[in-house]
Amino acid sequence: MSILVLGTVALDSVKTPSGARKNILGGSAAHFAMSARLFTDVHLVAIVGSDFPKKYIDFLKRKKIDLSSLTVSRGRTFQWKGKYEGDLNTAITLDTRLGVLPEFRPCVHDAQKKIQFIFLANVDPDIQRHLLEKVACSAFVGLDSMNYWILHRRSSLLRLLKAVDVFVANDQEARLLSQEANLIKAAKFLINQGPRIVLIKKGEHGALLYTKDFIFSLPAYPTDKVIDPTGAGDTFAGGFMGYLASVKRINQANLKLAAAYGTIAASFNVEDFGLDGTSYLNKRDLGKRLIQLRKYVAF
Amino acid sequence: MSILVLGTVALDSVKTPSGARKNILGGSAAHFAMSARLFTDVHLVAIVGSDFPKKYIDFLKRKKIDLSSLTVSRGRTFQWKGKYEGDLNTAITLDTRLGVLPEFRPCVHDAQKKIQFIFLANVDPDIQRHLLEKVACSAFVGLDSMNYWILHRRSSLLRLLKAVDVFVANDQEARLLSQEANLIKAAKFLINQGPRIVLIKKGEHGALLYTKDFIFSLPAYPTDKVIDPTGAGDTFAGGFMGYLASVKRINQANLKLAAAYGTIAASFNVEDFGLDGTSYLNKRDLGKRLIQLRKYVAF
To answer: What pLDDT was estimated at residue A117?
Structure first.
């Protein structure tokens, strides 16, 4: 089944111990799309400015991402500038220029309103709710957020949690939103807010899938080539949601496999700058690492 | 086969969000022994002062720990005072009183010199080497250390690494000793120093087993009851080494199972203060959680 992702398409400038890149294609929806597209067709809902390079539009189209709901507005595209140091686990934001982002009112056309898999990647919770009200009420919905919204829009976010199936967060966000230091307690708190699945991403430490019926833990795929982790969480979510959109049933076995595909997709993402690690990826590449990951955890 | 552990036996005073305890039995060798004893008979090599409470001697004897090489010296027992906050991942040392520890010259009797499983828990690397020179050169040797020795006795420690089979470290220590931020690179560095097995403990994030032949990753056993993590790493090492001492062959399957038993033993350790979480443990308790852990990672 198709998947619809709401989020940002951005111009990223990033500096890591491996080098630097300026104004490369990034944003939560772009990273998500790059892994979700390996499983199903992806419809992107986002806004960019009139400065947005045509080469990036062409690139996304070549990757078969549906851009019919990408708004191009007069003004500047959202820009993020950041760096990573040491173990590369935490991004240090140097500058954020919202550009056209605050005026974003997501629009979807009638055919897209019937899409059954929706991912609300990290943007203002009010924009996320705005889209959610437009899509099928039978849809399977995933939600991501970030520290900024947790701190400044906690009640909006908690309301939104009641209306989604999956909440995706990193460990810091899960702790911040739940106000629990222990991650299992944090997951319990989150599941009690409404979603039936909580997916906590822990960077180099892997991920925790917490549901009312079972818990599943997965390490990160072991790589010693971490070039740029920007977008790893969105790439993870794209693999996870993309796989679920491609299977017949959302059961325990498929949820675990979805988390494994998310893990694998994220491992490719961190191995190069921006989308360079995932833009040439295919399902065979994912499959090879999936076999490795299975060996790596089996005992 | 028997196992011999060199390390500290200490009086710990600890404060955590769940409460506080004063002068409870602790130390690397005591925590190690409490899990290793579930698999084999344990010989403890350590020093305590003349103030060491008889009730703790009696307790260790009741747990069938061989104390024939426990030196009781005039002076005070090693004392550690610390606290944990927030996610309880890092101990904050408030006070350390070495007492009789600096005068420690480990002695083992002839029968103990033939023991084939040796664990050098965290003490001065010179004391560790001193013991290593006395035991069978065919022995399977595990080594642990800590930040203090890595910073102040780096070359002694690196020399010692050449003479052991397993190096056990937490993620901070592995990064500090290897001077690599990436944990896979850190493990590669460590394995190139001599040991054929590197076991990196990551607290709530589980453990990484790195060998020349395979990599194995394991999450921590999911518990929302973290009372006192003091000694969790030593308890892990005790389960790991204890299981290896109890099997016929040290192969991939058994090394993975050993890491799983270490994980399980550590999960019981953190659920109560000091040795309270492990002192009444039996193999059936371990077995039950092992089944859970298998489910928790299988996909």
So the answer is: 98
